[in-house]
UniProtKB/TrEMBL annotation:
All residue ranges annotated as the Aminoacyl-transfer RNA synthetases class-II family profile domain in the record: 238-382
PROSITE patterns on file: AA_TRNA_LIGASE_II
Listed name of the protein: Aminoacyl-transfer RNA synthetases class-II family profile domain-containing protein
SUPFAM superfamilies with a match to the protein in the record: Class II aaRS and biotin synthetases
Protein's organism: Azospirillum thermophilum
Length: 394
């Protein structure tokens, strides 16, 4: 452990025996450890992970986290199903170029707005992914961005991913409180923002951390017909808090996802997942994107659920489509393809015609990330884009 003049503490860890997927998982997890983690970088040449912390008090927690992840991830190996090499890359300082282009507006940490050409390109990906869903005969659904806490609790979400949840709350129905807040907001020193500590009602809702979550409730006590596969699709804003790791389009607090969800017998949902993966990878080839389709796992960082990462990989229940970023050492997951087995259908009693539990699978397409991955490889100049894309956004 070493310290520098500004109080930053550096701690190094030997991850040389971990595979690429294990290193990525630890890097992702460190972003949820706390604001004390200022930076983390892995050197493939030495196998060393160097973590910068705001002070020595954070070192024990980071050491405990890395040790626990290392114990779990020693069983994790990389498995690549497919790989596509781009014929032409146009690398550049994409983050700086996006900030300067005028078509991207950063409203706050993890909050990005689009206009002009960037919005037109976003709409292109929106249409293409919807076309994939339509190709499977998916029924389109629309849900609110706010859902009850009780829904997440029912699904066990707080037990696995509490770090992502954004709670919604409001002022109480009390005229004296409302008048006091309004009066305080007029004080010049507060710049229109009153102090709310201790005034807000306990939150009863969250901003949804997953587009598909309400659709499982819709299937409560449903019995599928013999041979039926129920196919739904939905697009919405998704909200996941990522501590100090926000990056415009690549990792947002508020981002847009379209999901395709299948309900049916195991062999049917597994087959359909494979077909969606093929279609998504074909789309990468059509756009000449450098990408891989790889075995993956959800970010289980808490001690109580960390071993689930190994179980997911053993069962091959999650694959991700990763797009190469020429400017960065790690790729970007733009889509995921997940088998839930009977997790949700057991909660909501969704059954097959023979009385057995149905199974579900969810295919997620992060539209902001597709946009970012494309621009990272092809640049901002439409002259460098494939003709199909140029024609669509003209």
């Amino acid at each position: 452990m070493s310290a520098v003049e500004d109080g930053t503490v550096r701690r190094s860890f030997d991850l040389g025996r971990l595979g690429e997927a294990g290193v990525r998982a630890i890097l992702d997890g460190l972003r949820s450890v706390g604001e004390e983690v200022r930076d983390a970088a892995f050197d493939p040449a030495t196998g060393l992970l160097t973590v910068e912390l705001t002070g020595a008090q954070a070192v024990p927690e980071v050491e405990r986290f890395v040790a626990g992840m290392r114990r779990t991830l020693r069983f994790v190996n990389r498995k690549v199903l497919k790989e596509n090499r781009a014929e032409r890359l146009v690398p550049g300082p994409i983050d700086e170029e996006l900030r300067a282009c005028g078509d991207l507006q950063i409203l706050g940490e993890g909050l990005t707005g689009l206009r002009g050409r960037m919005l037109a390109l976003f709409r292109f990906f929106e249409r293409e992914v919807k076309a994939i869903a339509d190709g499977f005969g998916a029924e389109d659904n629309h849900y609110p961005v706010m859902i009850p806490n009780a829904l997440l609790a029912e699904m066990g979400y707080f037990g696995h991913f509490p770090q992502h949840v954004t709670f919604c709350c409001h002022l109480p129905d009390s005229l004296p409180v409302l008048e006091a807040v309004a009066a305080e907001s007029k004080q010049p020193a507060l710049h229109g923002l009153p102090r709310l500590d201790g005034l807000l009602d306990p939150p009863q809702h969250v901003l949804t951390p997953g587009v598909c979550l309400p659709c499982y409730v819709q299937q409560r006590d449903r019995v599928l017909a013999p041979g039926e596969v129920r196919t739904l699709t939905m697009q919405n804003h998704v909200f996941r808090y990522e501590a100090n790791n926000f990056r415009p389009l690549a990792r947002g607090w508020d981002f847009t996802v379209r999901d395709i969800v299948f309900f049916g017998a195991r062999e049917d949902v597994e087959r359909l997942r494979g077909e969606v993966m093929e279609r998504a990878f074909a789309f990468c080839r059509e756009l000449d994107l450098e990408a891989t389709l790889e075995l993956a796992n959800d970010p289980f960082f808490l001690d109580a659920s960390r071993d689930k990462a190994v179980y997911q990989r053993m069962g091959e229940v999650k694959y991700e489509l990763l797009v190469h970023l020429p400017q960065r050492p790690e790729p970007l997951a733009v889509s995921s393809f997940n088998l839930h087995r009977d997790y949700y259908t057991a909660i909501y009693n969704t059954r097959l015609a023979d009385g057995g539990l149905a199974e579900s699978a969810c295919m997620g397409f992060g539209l902001d990330r597709w946009l970012y991955g494309f621009l990272s490889q092809k640049g901002l100049d439409p002259a460098d884009w494939p003709e199909r894309v140029r024609a669509a956004v003209a």
